[in-house]
Amino acid sequence: MRPFLAMVTAVLVAATVAVAPTASAADSTVGGPGAGDPYFPRHGNGGYDVRHYRINAAYDAPRARLKGTTRIRAVAFKRLTRFNLDLLLDASSVRVDGRKARLTQRGRELVVTPARAIRKGARFVVTVRYAGRPASVREKGVTPFLTTKSGAVAVGQPQVAPWWFASNDHPSDKATFDIRLRAPRGQQALSVGRLASHRAVAGGNQWRWVMRKPMATYLAFAAWGRFRIDRGKVNGVRYLYAYDKAMSPALRRRAIRSLRATPQVTAFLSRHLGPYPYADLGGVVTSAPLEFALETQARPVYDSTFFRRASSLDARRNTSVVAHEIAHQWFGNSVSLRRWRDIWLNEGLATYMEWMWDESRGLDDVETVFDSWYSVKGAWFWRLPIGKPGRNHIFDYEVYVRGAMTAHALRGEIGDAAFFSLLRRWVSERKDGHGTTAQFVALAEKVSGQQLDTLFDAWLYSGKRPAL
Ligand SMILES: [Zn+2]
């Protein structure tokens, strides 16, 4: 994610509740309402691992109503007499392995009691039918489901899934996706990955999107509305860009020019990080007032305001956000967080690659950017321990800037060869998986042969301006 203002998204992530352990969570055959992330105790669930989602969703813009079915293939970690899913819309029925199951809903927790207990290690299929008005469903006053002039867009971090599909909503549980979105005739329905088909169905068109690589739930988006679509192939990789038709022609031209840099950005990043992790490239520019861009898998979503700069010097900065979101395809998407506390691994490394892209375009070089931030002496800038920022601060500016500075300090300490070898090994050894800060530090020490605790402690946890 790349916000305009860190403050804006801090409001979004404040939408959490502290949870007291319940008696039922201790029951060994009950799945439990969380994935064990102390920052977001209700995000995700316990007792099973999702392998695949098949989502069918139709959005009726005039009534602002979404109707959907999510079919989940999962594996039980233990015997389950009851388990939870995350969903904020109203579920009308749940089936487990074809049998009707009992359901109750409270907040984002959908509690499912199957007719028969699920055996430990068993594969099982859950089908949930639901409907609701997602733009009106708010947690602490916030919804990541925004209506636009012609439709709506569901995009957000750390959570968006409960507003449009039933899931195990935490990045520790990644899965493949098959997403079928219905749109009225004359409109488009967009999502992540490969456009597998679009065909006429009763009352409109169905757009089917397939993501064959494991993906965290927050990296799936849905957008309905009127878009201009550009698609084709470059260097053997398919691309699909979409531009909201509500944008002014001048803004749209600049957005098109910026997104068309995506293959060039990807080639630049691949030279430093190794192969791009996905089979598709793309981007969606929305007119919805997101005030951020998000690295949704293989197809980031951008607020159109990122492309407002018109002068030729400034216009080079219109691709900075593209570099940031494409860098996340390695850092965050292919290698995902297990706990939101480690967010600097996503945002710091994506911001650092953004700085490197800017440097390659003749803008400020990385050293100058680092020096100008390092010259900030005010305690306010150094106070946040970015390695454990607290749940209300995961998208604060310091996590981005000082995360990137941490990468640059590390590069200075271990040298270019070890630094880029570390990044390449990190993304290749953990491809389609997860990584923690401790694992990153361990690999940095292994690759460099240096003891780096002092450096990482100073940059991530001290809350003070590190000595150079
Ligand atoms: Zn980001």
Query: Roughly what is the average pLDDT, rounded to an integer?
Result: 94
The fraction of residues in strands falls at 25-35%
Bound molecules: zinc ion
Estimated structural class: alpha+beta
Tell the overall outline: globular
CATH homologous superfamily identity of the largest domain:
tricorn interacting facor f3 domain
**Main sheet makeup:** 10 strands, mixed
- Name of the CATH class of the largest domain: Mainly Beta
What's the end-to-end separation, in Å? 29 Å
Structural domain count: 3
Main-sheet strand order equals 4-7-6-5-8-3-2-11-14-13
Low-confidence stretches: 5-25
Rounded to an integer in angstroms, the radius of gyration calculated over CA atoms is 22 Å
Return the CATH topology of the largest domain: Immunoglobulin-like
Helix fraction by DSSP (H/I, runs of at least 4): 25-40%
Quaternary organization: single chain
Task: Describe the 3D structure.
The chain is of the alpha+beta class. It has three domains: 225 residues, Immunoglobulin-like (Sandwich), CATH 2.60.40; 95 residues, Neutral Protease Domain 2 (Neutral Protease, domain 2, Orthogonal Bundle); 122 residues, Neutral Protease, domain 2 (Orthogonal Bundle). Helix content is 28%, strand content 29%. The protein contains 13 helices and 22 strands. It has a ten-stranded mixed sheet with strand order 4-7-6-5-8-3-2-11-14-13, with no helix packed on it. The two termini are 29 Å apart. The structure holds zinc ion (ZN). The site of zinc ion (ZN) has 6 residues, from helix 7. Zinc ion binds next to helix 7.
